[in-house]
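stage 2 :: seqdesign
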């Protein structure tokens, strides 16, 4: 059983990875529609910078925490709900990429990438899910990647985590089929953010390079608009990007062409 949702004046969006890139673009976009926002990430100063841009527009809660510390999630959920009495949309946007061959990537780095990209969004969604069920509505958005559709060189652990997201949240969606709690998977291609700059090398150090392919990608603002539209229309899954989306369809319909082409694509 679930409760009939109460009509509310504003929607409360909780965005992880809200300090820059897609998360920041989402915050600015959603604020223009008058939604209340909860901004999470590790960098308090960066979150406050984003919140300052929204001053006098909407109510904002800056809720910083480290996504690798899964044991703090129940406490953060309580704080998030207490902000306005409800949360309506959780956008699991935070993530960490990789730029290293599999054989050069330490087990510690693999575990860190898997924790931030897979275990964290799973744990946070599970911690908030009872609230969604109790209020009779909710929407879980998971920012995955086209790397969740096929493996790609120098991103073995990253691709593994994104593949895992799809399996988990597609299963969760089926378990929620009789409840108005929705799950949307977002698969961006290359987006012009600092994700490649912050990507981890095999020893755990930062890549510290804005890859050429990343620089030529779609803007974070474009990606945010696609996500907003997908939420509005309760899409199961949405892809966004440029030519790099082509391999997704080639792998599905023309596997031999895909495997020939993907070997020739520059991994940076």
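stage 2 :: out
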């Amino acid at each position: 059983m679930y409760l009939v949702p109460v009509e509310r004046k504003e929607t409360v969006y909780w965005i992880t990875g809200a300090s820059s890139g897609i998360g920041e673009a989402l915050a600015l976009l959603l604020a223009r529609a008058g939604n209340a926002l909860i901004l999470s990430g590790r960098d308090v100063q960066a979150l406050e910078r984003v919140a300052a841009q929204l001053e006098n527009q909407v109510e904002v809660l800056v809720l910083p925490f480290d996504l690798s510390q899964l044991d703090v999630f129940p406490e953060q959920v309580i704080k998030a709900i207490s902000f306005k009495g409800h949360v309506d949309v959780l956008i699991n946007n935070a993530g960490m990429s990789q730029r290293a061959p599999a054989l050069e990537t330490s087990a510690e780095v693999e575990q860190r990438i898997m924790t931030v990209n897979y275990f964290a969004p799973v744990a946070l969604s599970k911690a908030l899910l009872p609230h969604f069920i109790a209020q009779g509505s909710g929407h879980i958005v998971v920012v995955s990647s086209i790397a969740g559709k096929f493996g790609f060189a120098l991103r073995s652990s990253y691709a593994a985590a994104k593949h895992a997201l799809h399996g988990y949240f597609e299963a969760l969606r089926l378990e929620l089929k009789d409840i108005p709690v929705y799950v949307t998977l977002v698969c961006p291609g290359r987006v012009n953010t600092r994700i490649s700059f912050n990507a981890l090398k095999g020893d755990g150090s930062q890549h510290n390079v804005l890859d050429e392919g990343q620089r030529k990608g779609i803007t974070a603002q474009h990606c945010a608009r696609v996500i907003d539209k997908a939420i509005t229309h309760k899409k199961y899954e949405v892809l966004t990007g440029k030519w790099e989306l082509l391999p997704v369809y080639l792998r599905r319909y023309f596997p031999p062409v895909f495997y020939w082409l993907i070997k020739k694509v520059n991994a940076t």
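stage 3 :: structure notes
- Confidence is low (pLDDT under 50) at residues 1-7.
- The two ends are 49 Å apart (CA to CA).
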